[in-house]
Amino acid sequence: MSFAPTIPSTGLTGWAFLQSTYDRQFEHFNKDPILERDNEYFMENIKKVKTAEDLVSDYRLLEVALNAFGLASEINSKAMIQKVLEDGSEADDALANKLGDDRWIDFTNAFKFGPGLAPVTGLTYKMQEVADKNVVQSFEDAVGQQDVSMQIALYAERELVDLVTFDDEGEELSITGQWLNIIGQPQLQTMMQTALGLPSDLALLDIDQQVGIMQDAAKKRFGSDDLTMFSDPEQLEKLVNTYLARTELNAYSGAASSGALALSLLQA
């Protein structure tokens, strides 16, 4: 991409600048000629795709499709991708439901190649949604090349509220279901663990244990374990700011510890 987002500093100061200039920076990014060509190719050719194999066989189409869901790094796993698309997500044993990352579920649901489903690749408005997601995800990826924590914060602002409010059938999620959705999204899991002051190796525990620990920590930190509280913009802002502040603090503490160790070795 020819346009790189401007982020003058890390932490809350850099985040405040990114927030205040987001619309202008995103507008410039959206005009990137490479991005425009990729999306134009996608919209012109996706309607010709009738099967999962058709999509996987066209590298340029697949690249846009995967990137729209933050899965671009998996582009060489073509056999797995085709299996995810062909299985869909309705069956419990579908591959997308086994991968532990809900982005695969969103990915397969966007095209509907699963058993008994009618592919939606011929519906322009549906495929435009994918192309639009590609632009947003590409911008967030560009931000992440400079500061991963800000990329995660942008993703949380975009996705968190929807993920903790309704399930795929439009039914309200239980509190346990809310937390399971967070754990199913690697970026949001990282954000929540950091904001709650929990160690990264929490993910090694049984899922039920993870949920219980995170719920208890949320009650102490935010006064509730009901994640729909973040539908309040002030509460969401508090969560994001807490995450960014803790990330910066952790980085500073790590650097200080490394510096102290180096000093002790030199003195020895």
From TrEMBL:
Pfam families given in the database record: DUF1217 (PF06748)
Record protein name field: DUF1217 domain-containing protein
Source organism of the structure: Pseudophaeobacter arcticus
